């Protein structure tokens, strides 16, 4: 696969020049700053082994665990479904992988194949549908959905992630038409730009024209955003998703790497949602998998479900390995985390 080196460099520089830091939380400022010297083209070939994909990639699982995940997934959806979604190349040169026949398998791929299988069982999309993933990381999940549904793809993430996912997706789909941030003319993205391209990769501050989306996805990144940014994305989702469209949200019940606690039950769903699937995530019981369908009229489905999710979250909190999180009253712990973050920001 031949990549145009200058196109990656130009797009990344363009995005950095126009970077709106208010869209990046403390979590991502910290993580991206640790690897800021890695964002050069020569490092893309090994992005899964040189640290570039840190924070975007489940590479902490052992090979034994990967085999466990694979055998479990085979029982659920069969070898054929899994095999057709895997790649013959170890793109990014991940260190922890196994192989079946000529296909490479990492834990991250298996989680995304599981998500894809759950989606396929409940929704129907085609090549005229539009999937929008917010926070796609290096693009693993959406690549699998593209293979299944052949839909148009819109990705929204920070420049650092887009530097990687554009490389990854162009490697898998070399004959598809891509539209990146530096293709924007006169600070305006048109409907024509959307409809004439197959994969559109943008930053969160770049305004998408009023097109209706069939499926929105966020997996494991809202939990790393501040509430004000989560609110912005929910406004976007609830305005752009077509009636009858779906939203997949897979996030931790609780995470506090932005400096204060972010809780799943506080995500600002309005009352126009029907719950399709709601469960603890496969092999990750600290994460919730919620698939909802957009309704035309209000209902109380989501409110009832959030009560159930709160109950699951509380049971997990009481088993937390962190002493203060487990034993302090929840409100006291939240205050402690906010104070700790405030003092840390002053010292640094």
Write a concise keyword list for the protein shown above:
348 residues, alpha/beta, two-stranded antiparallel ribbon, eight-stranded mixed beta sheet, globular, single chain
Average pLDDT, rounded to a whole number, is: 92
Number of strands: 12
Strand order of the largest sheet: 5-6-4-3-7-8-12-11
Shape: globular
Q: Distance between the terminal alpha carbons, to the nearest Å?
A: 44 Å
Largest sheet: 8 strands, mixed
Query: How many helices does DSSP assign?
Result: 11
Give the topology string: H per helix, E per strand. HHHEEHEHEHEHEEHEEEEEHHH
Structural class comes to: alpha/beta
**Rg, please?**
20 Å
In terms of topology, how is this protein built?
Blueprint: H1 5-17, H2 26-34, H3 63-85, E1 98-100, E2 103-105, H4 107-122, E3 130-134, H5 140-149, E4 152-156, H6 159-172, E5 178-180, H7 191-195, E6 199-202, E7 213-219, H8 227-240, E8 241-252, E9 254-255, E10 262-263, E11 273-281, E12 284-294, H9 301-317, H10 323-327, H11 330-347
Parallel strand pairs: 3-4, 3-7, 4-6, 5-6, 7-8
Antiparallel strand pairs: 1-2, 8-12, 9-10, 11-12
Helix pairs in contact: 1-6, 3-4, 4-5
């Amino acid at each position: 696969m031949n990549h145009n080196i200058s196109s990656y460099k130009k797009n990344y520089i363009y995005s950095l020049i126009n970077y709106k830091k208010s869209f990046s939380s403390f979590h991502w400022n910290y993580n991206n700053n640790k690897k800021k010297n890695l964002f050069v083209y020569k490092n893309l070939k090994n992005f899964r082994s040189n640290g570039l994909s840190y924070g975007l990639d489940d590479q902490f699982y052992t090979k034994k665990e990967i085999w466990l995940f694979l055998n479990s997934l085979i029982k659920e959806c069969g070898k054929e479904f899994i095999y057709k979604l895997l790649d013959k190349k170890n793109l990014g040169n991940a260190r922890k992988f196994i192989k079946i026949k000529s296909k490479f398998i990492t834990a991250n791929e298996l989680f995304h194949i599981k998500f894809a299988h759950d989606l396929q069982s409940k929704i129907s999309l085609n090549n005229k549908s539009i999937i929008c993933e917010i926070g796609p990381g290096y693009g693993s999940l959406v690549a699998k959905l593209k293979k299944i549904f052949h839909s148009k793809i819109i990705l929204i993430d920070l420049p650092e992630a887009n530097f990687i996912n554009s490389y990854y997706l162009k490697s898998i789909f070399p004959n598809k038409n891509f539209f990146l941030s530096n293709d924007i003319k006169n600070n305006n993205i048109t409907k024509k730009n959307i409809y004439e391209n197959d994969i559109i990769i943008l930053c969160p501050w770049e305004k998408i024209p009023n097109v209706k989306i069939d499926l929105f996805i966020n997996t494991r990144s809202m939990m790393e955003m501040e509430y004000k940014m989560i609110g912005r994305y929910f406004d976007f989702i609830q305005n752009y998703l077509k009636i009858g469209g779906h939203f997949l949200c897979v996030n931790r019940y609780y995470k506090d790497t932005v400096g204060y606690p972010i809780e799943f039950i506080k995500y600002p769903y309005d009352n126009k949602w029907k719950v399709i699937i709601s469960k603890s995530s496969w092999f990750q019981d600290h994460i919730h998998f919620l698939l909802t369908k957009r309704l035309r009229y209000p209902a109380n489905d989501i409110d009832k479900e959030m009560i159930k999710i709160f109950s699951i979250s509380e049971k997990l909190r009481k088993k937390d390995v962190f002493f203060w999180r487990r034993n302090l009253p929840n409100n006291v712990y939240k205050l402690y985390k906010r104070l700790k973050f405030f003092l840390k920001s002053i010292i640094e």
